[in-house]
Write a structure and sequence with these properties.
Elements: H1 5-8, H2 16-19, E1 37-41, H3 45-56, H4 61-74, E2 95-101, E3 106-113, H5 119-129, E4 134-136, H6 137-146, H7 157-169, H8 194-211, H9 219-227, E5 233-239, E6 245-251, E7 272-275, E8 279-285, H10 287-293, H11 295-304, H12 309-323, H13 328-331, E9 336-342, E10 347-351, E11 355-357, E12 360-361, E13 363-367, E14 371-375, E15 377-378
Parallel strand pairs: 3-4, 10-15
Antiparallel strand pairs: 1-5, 1-13, 2-3, 2-6, 5-6, 7-8, 8-9, 9-10, 11-12, 13-14
The structure holds aspartic acid (ASP).
The site of aspartic acid has 12 residues, from strand 8.
């Protein structure tokens, strides 16, 4: 099987017109929007309509948002959240979630939870049934069980096989993967030029994915998840016609993370922040970067001081860029998307890079009576995390951005 550079390289400029999707209007974020309204990461799209109907009929804003994120948590095929989430480096799924309820100004959060699928609901239970805000690890799991959540195996067969592929790929110095006695074993070649070596690695990974029983149509995606450990999360914010607002975020976090690693998603102020007086924001992407800029809180505070949702989100992205002094050689290995909703219904989706690929741009799903997915406004053209790893900054990864001026 030949792998074209296009299978992996994702620097083409995303054309919203070509994809038949509306791009965000910069002005939309400065004018008041409609109420009620819900915004979420695009993996919540399929669940947004029924949650919106619930909100419209008087359902609580947090319960409406939780209805959206529970969808991907329950879906074994969404490998970024809940059941089927890609595991940590030891093959164990560890989940993070948090929520904020604007009307009562309360928050709940759980981090590093094993064996419990709907951690978003557990974060709400922490808010409602304890005097704490955050529970982690074993204590959070025991609390979830006490609240009636069943313990279950969250590692699906597919996620386990992808993890195994990742494990074998990174194991030149241990006993994982086929050994010397394997009939197909070949001495590693270091004589190949860089590009051929990459082709060779991809071919072997693809073949091994087949041997591990990964379905043919999913093999390329599995190889990609090994070469670029994915992030993936869902955030949702909901605003009703009375102006009440809530938000929540849930994730399995960065694939193959160190056991015990907690990302931004359950951190109140990073993965999610809601202030009843101002609005709500949430994040998906490189958690470590977002924690350092307290992204969601920064955005809400920016709006409090008069910025539009778009400018508020861009400002948080600028801080991430500033943390690396604009060094594109580093910034190309991270990404971040913010979902921003102001109390008057104005909203924005902003991201550091345009998307995962030319055909898969970052999107924000919106429902204000009309359900739609909109392409986010990106700070930089192209995508993060190039492959094969390039020594030089490709020209298309230009540092120029109108948002940095
Ligand atoms: N932000 C999440 C984390 O770092 C991952 C993601 O959003 O994709 O855990």
């Amino acid at each position: 099987m030949a792998f074209s550079r296009r299978d992996f390289i994702q620097t083409a400029i995303v054309s919203s017109v070509a994809l038949g999707l509306p791009a965000q209007e910069k002005s939309a974020s400065t004018l008041p929007g409609k109420r009620p309204i819900m915004v979420c990461a695009n993996n919540g799209y399929d669940y947004l309509d029924s949650a919106f109907q619930f909100l419209k009929q008087g359902g609580d804003t947090l319960d409406a948002a939780l209805r959206v994120v529970k969808g991907p948590e329950d879906d074994p095929n969404d490998d970024s959240v809940g059941l089927g989430g890609l595991p940590n480096e030891e093959g164990v799924v560890e989940l993070d979630a948090c929520c904020m309820h604007g009307p009562t100004r309360r928050a709940g959060s759980v981090g590093g939870v094993r064996n419990i699928k709907n951690v978003s609901l557990v974060s709400k239970a922490v808010m409602e049934h304890t005097g704490h805000v955050m529970l982690v690890g074993e204590g959070a799991e025991r609390f979830a069980v006490a609240m009636g959540h069943p313990r279950e195996n969250l590692l699906t067969d597919r996620s386990r096989k992808i993890w195994l592929l990742w494990k074998e790929y990174h194991s030149s110095n241990d006993w994982w993967g086929p050994g010397l006695a394997d009939p197909h074993w070949k001495a590693p070649s270091d004589a190949l030029p860089h590009a051929d070596l990459m082709q060779d690695r991809m071919r072997k990974l693809h073949q091994r994915a087949g041997e591990l029983g990964i379905e043919p149509e999913f093999r390329l995606a599995a190889v990609r998840r090994v070469l670029f450990p994915p992030t993936g999360t869902i955030h949702c914010s909901a605003l009703n016609d009375k102006g009440e607002i809530s938000g929540c975020t849930t994730t399995s976090g960065l694939a193959y993370k160190l056991p015990g690693r907690v990302g931004d998603s359950p951190i109140i102020g990073a993965g999610c922040y809601t202030d009843q007086d101002v609005g709500s924001a949430g994040a998906t992407g490189s958690g470590e970067e977002n924690i350092k800029v307290a992204g969601a809180h920064t955005i809400v505070e920016n709006m409090r001081h008069g910025m539009s949702p778009l400018d508020a989100g861009m400002d948080a992205l600028k801080r991430i860029v500033r943390n690396y002094n604009g060094d594109m050689n580093r910034i190309r290995f991270m990404d971040m998307t913010y979902y921003v909703l102001r109390k008057d219904g104005a909203y924005a989706g902003v991201s550091l890079w345009q998307g995962y690929s030319a055909t898969n741009p970052h999107k924000i799903a919106v429902h204000d009576g009309t359900l739609r997915a909109e392409i986010t406004v990106a700070m930089f053209k192209g995508s993060s995390q190039e492959f094969p790893l390039m020594r030089d900054i490709p020209p298309e990864l230009s540092k120029d951005s109108e948002y940095l001026k």
